[in-house]
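Homework help board

Subject: predicted structure for assignment chain

Our instructor gave us this sequence and asked us to write out the predicted structure in token form, then describe one feature. I got the tokens but I'm not sure how to describe them. Can anyone check?
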Amino acid sequence: MPSEFDARIKLVYPVDSGTFFTVDDVARGDAFDVIANVEIGPQLNGVVDAFDLKIGVVNLTQSKSVDVVNLNGALTPTVAPFTSEERVTIPAGWQTKADVGDVLQVTASYKVTAGANTDFSTAMSDTFVVS
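My token output:
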């Protein structure tokens, strides 16, 4: 659990579409999902307004971005710990940005807004390969 006044991505990982099974490889250009487990400490959660989750897929072999997906929404203040599992889909069609055998990695940032204040967290997944 993060501290009382912090928000944190606890884990981010790529999975097969519609499942919770971590991928070792993903077929070139096919859609897949990314799951981010996030937590907000109880004091920060008592004054939250909104969150922004940015998920990027990076081709480490070619040093370029494969895709970026943004997810955002409102949060309801409650003085209690908050946990959530956010899922985003990396849509099909990214085959021009990776070749078979390239190594990919998911990066993520999580921003929580509470009035004029913001809190950021980042995370990276294990690597996986394009098949």
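Reply (TA_rk): Your tokens look well-formed. For the description, you could write something like this. The chain is about 5% helix and 55% strand. That's the kind of observation they're looking for.
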